[in-house]
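Sanity check. The docking grid for flavin-adenine dinucleotide depends on where the pocket ends up, so I'm generating a full predicted complex first rather than guessing from homology. Inputs follow.
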Amino acid sequence: MGQRQTNPASSDTDVLIIGGGITGAGAARDAARRGVRVIVVEQGDIASGTSSRSSKLVHGGLRYLEQGEVSLVFEAVAERRILLEIAPHLVHPMPFLLPVFGDSRRGMFTINIGMWLYDGLSLFRSPKVHKTLSRAKVLKAEPALRSDGLKGAPVYYDCATDDARLTLETMLDAERHGAEIRTHTRVTRLLREGRNVVAAEVRDQLTGEVSTIKAKAIVNATGPWSDDTRALDGTIPNPRMRPTKGIHIVVSAKRLPITHAVVCLHPTDGRVFFTIPWGDETYIGTTDTDFEGDPGEVNATSEDVAYLIAATNDYFPGASIGTDDVIATWAGVRPLVSQEAAETESSVSREHIISVEPDGLITIAGGKLTTYRRMGTELINQVLETLEDRGLGLTGLQMPETDLNPLPGAVGWPESGDCEAVAERILSASEGLLTERTAALLSRSYGMRGINISELVVADPSLGAPLIEGRPEIAAQVVWAATEELAATISDVMIRRTQLYYRDSNQGLDAVDMVANLLAEQLGWSSSEAETHAADYRTEVERSRNWQTE
Ligand code: FAD
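Predicted complex below; grid placement will be based on this.
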């Protein structure tokens, strides 16, 4: 379990889920916990699509209040509460400061009414109830903020997360309950028997092997790829998606020191963007531009980066952020459902749709990270109903209780404990071999499973070595990623298991050889395979830096 398996020539299952993003993961966890047999296939790594490229917020969506979408906000804040309970190591309350200037579109009074409504919709169970800071208090709290025209600021609470690890842990929980997870495996064709799709042809992207998976129901949870997936049965369906691109930039917290997420309006077009504290870094985003093409090829452009830098410098004039300050960028494609499809399809909410295609493929599209658990339940309800209608109903299933059961890193979480308490346990389990900084990192990334990583170091102290001198990430994380967390490439480890790609000033390039050696040992790579994987990672970093030379 937890280690990537190679594919058998053919297999069969109750439900095949295409797509290992948060939507596929939520559905897999729900189905597996009910006792449904599930296989998930993901063409890349878990969360390598949009689900590792979001703003990393678990939020109610304050902006929906402005649009009168009260029920959407109610639903999202309820999910926020559940995720705080089932993943306390990955979902953390974060204060958001919304500075109000003399020329702001909304005055303090109106914004405060919105804040009361927002708190009220969470039944006053937000991580904390909002408060209003005077101009002087705002400047004390965030000294880097522009003072010109500043009136004051409400501070409200939402949550921040690690989107890739939230997706991964959701998938690992599904695996624990019997789901089979095949990463780096792409569906190349959907096969029909009569009118219905009954099987998928899949290709292992690392070995080139082709095999077939037969399933009673096939689910398309491929986010921004969902129109392409619908066409894999050889038809040309009407497009439903209207994808847009959003990018973020990362700078050192030394260059932009903030303690709240600051909600800003872009000075030229009035769009909302955030500056978000992220430990030793700060990230800024996002943009929103139409996107056409392969979502796998999406990248930040120099124009995107300049747009965010200009707005940041408008709000934080003393920071004078320049392009040289940008450590890394990420770009993602929002799987937005077109207005037309939302109106004509069996729309469950304005944010996502679930539809049964004429050939029986069940597509879920749209939605957001925050509401993934609920989307998973709705989707699996639809799958079971469809099977029932076709005379293929499943029996002996249980309630999934995905809202009550913790994700793997929260199993055994100390009663009324927090990440600091867990970090102490990790530290003491390490018998003095780990630093406090590493223990803190492990507790926020792996929760209680950080203790297992500590034990790896005790068994082999060489695994306590830092991946990069002066940084907290250690070799044991690489071993853990390969043996327990489905990692199969250097990019999987650098980008989505450790975040070195985003946080290290050289995007983890100085650790490539060490990571390649550790993975080679765990995954049985030859030296030439290890070299190829290292070259792939270097290319990926280079590609993400193309905006610098445009
Ligand atoms: P994806 O994560 O893209 O997963 C689909 C997967 O399908 C991919 O991994 C892909 O590789 C795989 N796939 C595609 N084709 C095939 C095939 N043929 N065979 C096998 N696998 C295949 N939401 C929030 O709640 N909070 C936020 O702060 C937030 N911020 C956002 C900021 C940005 C810039 C963006 C773009 C989105 C943001 N969202 C946010 C929305 C959220 O990130 C997405 O709704 C969510 O991640 C979509 O997940 P998904 O699983 O549907 O799609």
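Relevant for the grid: The chain has a mean pLDDT of 94.
Also worth noting: The chain has three domains: 10-51+165-239+338-389, 92-158+242-334, 412-549.
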